[in-house]
Amino acid sequence: MAITRDQVLHVARLARLDLSEAEVEQLTGELGAILDAVSKVSELDLADVPPTSHPLDLVNSWAEDEPHDSLPLEDVLRNAPASERDMFRVPPTA
Fold first, then answer.
1. Which of 22, 43, 67, 90 sits 20 to 30 Å CA-CA off 37?
2. 86 backbone φψ class: left, alpha, beta (φ>0; ψ -120 to 50)
């Protein structure tokens, strides 16, 4: 399945990517190859294959919710870029 240059530019615009002409050209070929590979699935007879979200059975194993002491505040704030009055300091947004 071919993808056009305009479609690549449209996807780039949606993803807010500023692509150079070389990148647009490269991605046109790469995305076309990906679409070709994915389209091969439509050639398969999948009538007897049940829909699934994962190829393996997933089982959740939950641990008991045991109360425990919190981390000391100095440990919590140790890797924060900035803190103020025992809280994380978040820079204002523009």
1. 22
2. left
Judged against a pLDDT cut of 90, whether residue 62 lies above it is answered with no
- CA–CA distance from 87 to each of 38, 68, 71, 80, 83 (Å)? 48, 21, 14, 9, 5
pLDDT per position as a tens digit, 13-46? 999 999 999 999 999 999 999 999 999 988 899 8
Q: How far is the C-alpha of 53 from the C-alpha of 55, rounded, in Å?
A: 7
Provide the whole-model pTM.
Answer: 0.48
Q: Which two tokens stand for residue 50?
A: 């049940």
**Kind and range of the H or E element at 3?**
none
Tell me how far apart the alpha carbons of residues 46 and 52 are, in angstroms, rounded to a whole number: 12
Which position has the token pair 């530019």? Answer: 9
